Q: What sequence folds into this?
């Protein structure tokens, strides 16, 4: 759902064509010299605001104490001028350091930039992402649009399951403190190699990387986790590794052009080349090989490549070669092993021990919270955690066994802490969605505050599917499978709303005005008539003068005449304005409600 929203946002601000063009030019090998001009566009800044405000961390303050709530009340012109001025000579504000607990008891450091710096970085990200997406390797899955951990898992399983004797030797390499040890100079050179040759932009990114961390000083290396640009920059660093491994076998250029990759691989097997395939998610990657000799050579070669080319060290204790037919390998919370089946081997997976402990701890905390707070929200929070665990680990082939074990350990905690509060429930007490979700199970059900506790063990295996490589945000064909274009919306009117924003209004108002227009399919909320270029108004349901806000829920798009009819104190004038429209009983009631909210007398008195 989130990926569809981001595509919609680009359409709202008429930037999809710009992004598509950047992607196409990057695929063609073009260089980019004047990117700051695109980054500073009004539309790009407004899109950045929209994407940031939808981010869960937008209400988290940086070192200046400001959040998105301090930005949304500012006039749109003030926000645009402020962000543009930051590009004149960028000096990032200090980054707030926070630590979040890891499943193993350690803490992960996060760097939280100020909200203005986050909007600034988002502007850069939106322009750089299509350029980099065109150059990234097919089997890099972390922090990229439309890709997920399940795609990475599916790719690894497919290599193990290959019909012609799968690749069962897995190189596990753990990069020591990757995000804290990225070499800034190397990163900037890699960006230059990708075709990003705008020296002004590279200088800005260089200063951004050296932003002071509160209480720790100025870093000389690393991309702090928590920054908007950090995921993209980390992918740029390791993209060189992806292609280096890939060019050993998968994308090796031959003088003869084969009709299919399989034909090329058959010929390559007759040589002394090293057969290998890389699967990467962020800094977690696996290299799969045919035999131990190849794996051993590649292990040392990869270790050397990381050290000499990328200036990164590996953890000797956590890095190893695993024969998946004898031992298992952990990847993204899944434990994978090649299990004998008939004449071959297939990849079976389970939750890792760390994942089980982490899931158990999260659920136990949620149970304690239910007992302490005694609210429907706390019960629903527990249910969302259960569904999150089920959804993510459903890709494990033995998920039912893992969840049954977890359920067994949690039953006592549930019984001891909640038996006083719960009541016996039936399937009918569930919502229709949950009934459909758990229709194949017949568990004992209990409810608290009329909310049924979801049975933890009730989840079947759902095989992860490989990523369709033609899917992308930056071509019409690539977007087809993600979402349908805004076909039912008058594009000219949408473009007019986007371009001719109301300068004295807040950036929040102007942004929500577009959203509401799209949500209403470009039609008046009272008459249902399609809106033209100059005959629509955005109405505050609770007027600003009476304490109303610019929030999305407080806005509705109506015809100009309807807007006048809502606000006029004279009942007769209001009737005259409405006389040419045929309103249903429901619409008449809605119209009267809007008038009453505006402290005007109702016209129809049907409510």
A:
């Amino acid at each position: 759902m989130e990926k569809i929203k981001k595509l919609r946002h680009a359409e709202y601000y008429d930037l999809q064509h710009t992004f598509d063009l950047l992607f196409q030019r990057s695929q063609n090998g073009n260089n980019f010299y004047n990117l700051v001009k695109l980054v500073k566009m009004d539309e790009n800044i407004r899109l950045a605001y929209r994407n940031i405000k939808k981010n869960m961390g937008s209400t988290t303050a940086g070192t200046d104490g400001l959040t998105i709530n301090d930005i949304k009340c500012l006039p749109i012109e003030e926000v645009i001028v402020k962000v543009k001025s930051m590009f004149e000579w960028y000096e990032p504000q200090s980054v707030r350091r926070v630590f979040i607990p890891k499943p193993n008891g350690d803490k992960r450091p996060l760097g939280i930039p100020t909200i203005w710096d986050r909007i600034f970085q988002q502007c850069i990200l939106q322009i750089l992402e299509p350029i980099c997406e065109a150059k990234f390797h097919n089997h890099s899955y972390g922090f990229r649009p439309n890709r997920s951990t399940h795609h990475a898992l599916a790719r690894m399983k497919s290599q193990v399951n290959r019909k012609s004797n799968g690749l069962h030797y897995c190189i596990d390499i753990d990069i020591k403190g990757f995000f804290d040890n990225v070499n800034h100079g190397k990163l900037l050179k890699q960006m230059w190699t990708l075709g990003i040759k705008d020296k002004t932009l590279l200088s800005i990114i260089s200063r951004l990387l050296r932003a002071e961390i509160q209480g720790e000083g100025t870093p000389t290396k690393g991309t702090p986790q928590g920054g908007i640009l950090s995921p993209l920059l980390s992918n740029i660093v390791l993209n060189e590794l992806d292609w280096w491994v890939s060019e050993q076998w998968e994308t090796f250029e031959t003088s003869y052009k084969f009709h299919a990759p399989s034909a090329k691989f058959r010929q390559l097997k007759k040589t002394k080349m090293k057969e290998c395939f890389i699967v990467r998610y962020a800094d977690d990657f696996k290299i799969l090989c045919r035999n131990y000799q190849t794996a051993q050579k590649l292990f040392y070669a990869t270790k050397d490549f990381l050290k000499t080319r990328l200036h990164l060290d590996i953890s000797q204790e956590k890095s190893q070669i695993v024969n998946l037919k004898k031992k298992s390998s952990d990847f993204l919370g899944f434990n994978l092993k090649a299990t004998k089946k008939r004449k071959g081997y297939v990849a079976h997976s389970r939750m890792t021990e760390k994942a089980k402990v982490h899931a158990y701890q999260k659920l136990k905390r949620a149970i304690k919270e239910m007992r302490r707070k005694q609210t429907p929200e706390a019960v629903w929070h527990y249910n969302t955690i259960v569904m999150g665990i089920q959804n993510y680990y459903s890709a494990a082939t033995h998920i039912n066994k893992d969840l049954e074990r977890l359920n067994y350990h949690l039953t006592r905690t549930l019984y001891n802490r909640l038996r006083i509060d719960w009541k016996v429930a039936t399937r009918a007490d569930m919502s229709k969605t949950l009934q459909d979700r758990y229709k194949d199970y017949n568990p004992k059900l209990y409810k608290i505050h009329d909310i049924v506790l979801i049975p933890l063990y009730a989840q079947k295996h759902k095989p992860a599917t490989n990523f369709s490589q033609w899917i992308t945000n930056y071509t019409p064909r690539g977007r087809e499978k993600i979402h349908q274009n805004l076909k039912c919306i008058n594009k000219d009117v949408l473009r007019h709303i986007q371009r001719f924003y109301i300068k004295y209004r807040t950036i929040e108002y102007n942004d929500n005005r577009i959203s509401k227009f799209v949500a209403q399919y470009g039609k008046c909320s009272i008459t249902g008539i399609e809106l033209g270029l100059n005959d629509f108004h955005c109405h505050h349901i609770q007027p600003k003068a009476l304490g109303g806000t610019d929030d999305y829920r407080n806005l509705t798009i109506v015809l100009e005449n309807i807007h006048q009819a809502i606000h006029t104190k004279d009942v007769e004038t209001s009737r005259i304005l409405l006389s040419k429209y045929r309103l249903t009983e429901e619409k008449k009631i809605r119209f009267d409600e809007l008038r009453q909210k505006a402290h005007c007398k109702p016209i129809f008195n049907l409510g």
In short: The first strand starts at residue 96 and ends at 101. Residues 421 and 587 are 44 Å apart (CA to CA). Residues 353-373 form the longest helix (21 residues). The chain has a mean pLDDT of 91.
